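Q: For a teaching handout, I want to show students what a protein-ligand complex looks like in token form. Below are the inputs, and the small molecule is adenosine-5'-triphosphate. Please produce the holo structure.
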Amino acid sequence: MKRLLTGLKPSGELTLGSLIGGIKQSVEFQNNYDSFIFVPDLHAITVPQEAYLLKERIRKNVALYLACGIDPQKNTIYLQSENVYHTNLSWILECHTYMGEANRMTQYKDKASKKEQVSVGLFTYPILMAADILLYSANFVPVGIDQKQHVELTRNIAERFNHKYGDTFTIPEPIIPKIGAKIMDLQNPTKKMSKSSGDTKGSILLLDSEEVIRKKIMSAVTDSDNKVYFDIEKKPGISNLLTIYSSLSNKSLQEVEEIFKDSNYGYLKKEVADLVVITLLEIQKKYQEYVQSGIVDEVLDHGRKTVEKIAKEKYEEVLKKLGLGRF
Ligand code: ATP
Ligand code: MG
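A: Here is the structure, written as tokens, with adenosine-5'-triphosphate included.
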């Protein structure tokens, strides 16, 4: 069975973008792949975090994965920082990555341009991501479009390594959703909906209340043309709402355009809000059940045991090839 791997860093509260671009794909694929899903907590500290919030969010996010439909029987679920091999391998991969290629990462440039102080970790984090993937010989990595470049970097590092030291790493492929690869901020629909941007007015959080969800969607920025159709360039706000509806209803964009072609913006927003509310309230109900059941620690303990063994083996294979250690 081919292996699939995904992770959503606990750098902020999970959003509708995290669900549509990340978790939803893993749920769809979990029956057909050996699926790994983890909490990349080490990635979260590439930007400053409050320790008590991060601690809370780790368990919260596992409960949310489960509530979104990630089946613990079909997935290996684990916490990145509980397995030292991620960071160990990351160092080795850093030594096999060129400054030039790391410098080309557009997400770094984008995030760094908005901050006065930027950590070295924010720059090297795509290489830790490469380690996360290569350690487990993942064949497929479901990601939103913003992460495609990082998976390509991973492929380049792995190919270079294999070429120099002999076949070691599986070359992963990104899986990008056909609909919803980039859910946009509701207040600024030319910018990605992100969990760490600070301002949550344009982001729907998975745990937002019904009232807040409705308010955010009803005040989404649109345009003054008052015709509903899909055109990312000319109508980013409307296109984003159509995309959200399409993804959550599992209908094609054409079908959704057809449904709303004679509607005004108010009606479209109300229908999108209804669908988001139904989806998220269902998730929130299950989330509460998982939080109370104590299953989260059980799942993480089990995951830790499984991945430690796989990671150790791959890491030692790498050490041997490099002439490190005493093998
Ligand atoms: P941060 O702002 O901290 O980078 P993020 O919201 O971008 O957070 P990540 O943890 O970086 O979330 O990404 C987790 C997964 O979710 C990735 O596969 C990413 O591509 C996907 N993803 C994140 N935001 C969106 C979005 N707005 N639309 C579609 N996919 C998204
Ligand atoms: Mg991101």
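A: Two things your students might notice: The chain has two domains: 3-181+294-322, 210-288. The two ends are 31 Å apart (CA to CA).
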